[in-house]
Design a protein that fits this description.
Elements: H1 3-15, E1 21-26, E2 28-41, E3 48-61, H2 62-70, E4 75-83, H3 86-97, E5 101-108, E6 114-121, E7 124-131, H4 139-152, E8 158-162, H5 171-184, E9 187-191, E10 205-206, H6 210-217, H7 232-245, E11 249-253, E12 259-263, E13 269-271, H8 284-297, H9 302-316, H10 327-335
Parallel strand pairs: 1-4, 1-8, 2-6, 4-5, 8-9, 9-10, 10-11
Antiparallel strand pairs: 2-3, 6-7, 11-12, 12-13
Length: 337
């Protein structure tokens, strides 16, 4: 297929994103960035002293996936759990300001909102501080989430699951999500967590990164092989995961080496990275799963959805902080294909 026709097809798919309604389910977080300058080393310990110049807050985790969806459609909703604390209030305000439907978000006074604080100096991350409490949903909270999904699913085009291993996603809820997606013929795209061991049987697409893929497959993770299609260990991990997860599509993100797509009986497909520059990989996976799911919901072929996800991720890694790819940026990236 000619390059011009590839670009035209991708643009055609992208144009259909605007009419899609997507629900993101998963662990909600508040991303805090503390910006500063380093001019000396502390006399108390061999660590830099950061003079703070500013602070920024962004929706993180599954909330950042929803924020990425919002760049392409007004039909983005999120389901998750936050605390009734100042951090939860700030996160709720940020999600609503981004245009995310938060009606399916539960609030619990006994649950502290997860906060990830990154201290940045000279465009480099100095340290990250996590404030979190990992605890599974109660039976009552699971029932509320399941009922919320039942009420919404008829109006959805797709469901995105973003599992960060903080406890919102449990096997009973995962089973309900999968069964409802199958029953209603909805796209279900999952960004799994390697240590939760949740089963996502029959999902449309599952998107682990390389390390997560080897962990989930129960195999050692050797050094990457280039070209990627000659990486026998990676191909074997993918083969095992397809048999284990029974998903239609497996997309393994490979950082600087792009992405590997496995689907149906077709040969493995590799899309190389298209990042112009890499400043920060924070949130690149969130962008990839958001655009992959939107692409599939918009009728893209698996390889086309993977290409769009790869292009969008290439945009995001060129930005500092928890960033998103905009419609115009993705259009510009397609034009360079």
């Amino acid at each position: 297929m000619a390059v011009d026709s590839v670009s035209a097809r991708l643009c055609s798919v992208l144009a259909r994103f605007a009419g899609k309604r997507m629900l993101v389910i998963g662990d909600l977080m508040l991303d805090e960035f503390i910006w500063g300058k380093v001019s000396r080393i502390s006399p108390e310990a061999p660590v830099p002293v950061v003079n703070v110049t500013g602070e920024s807050y962004y929706p993180g985790g599954a909330a950042n996936v929803a924020r990425n969806v919002c760049e392409f459609t007004h039909g983005a909703a999120v389901m998750g759990l936050i605390g009734r604390d100042p951090q939860g209030g700030r996160l709720m305000e940020l999600m609503q300001a981004a245009g995310i439907d938060t009606s399916a978000v539960q609030q619990d006074a006994a649950f502290p909102t997860t906060v990830k604080t990154r201290i940045i100096a000279r465009n480099q991350q100095v340290v990250r501080v996590d404030r979190e409490r990992k605890s599974p949903l109660s039976a009552e909270q699971t029932a509320v989430a399941a009922e919320g999904l039942d009420a919404m699913i008829g109006g959805l085009d797709g469901i995105i699951v973003a599992d960060y291993g903080k406890g919102f996603l449990t096997q009973p809820l995962a089973d309900h999500i999968c069964s409802q997606a199958r029953a209603h013929g909805k796209v279900l795209a999952v960004d799994p967590h390697p240590y939760t061991s949740l089963s996502w049987q029959g999902a449309t697409a599952i998107k682990p990164n390389r390390a997560e893929a080897f962990i989930a497959a129960g195999l050692p993770n050797p050094d990457p092989v280039v070209p990627v299609l000659d990486d026998r260990a990676l191909l074997e991990a993918g083969r095992r995961l397809r048999g284990q997860w029974k998903s239609e599509i497996l997309l393994i993100t490979l950082g600087e080496h792009g992405m590997l797509l496995l689907t149906g009986d077709e040969p493995a497909y590799h899309t190389p990275t298209c990042a112009q520059a890499v400043f920060d990989v924070s949130g690149a996976g969130d962008t990839a799963i958001a655009v992959l799911a939107l692409g599939l919901a918009a009728g893209a072929r698996p390889a086309e959805a993977a290409e769009l996800a790869n292009l969008a991720s290439g945009v995001v890694v060129g930005k500092l902080g928890t960033a998103t790819a905009t419609l115009s940026e993705l259009q510009a990236s397609i034009a360079r294909v």
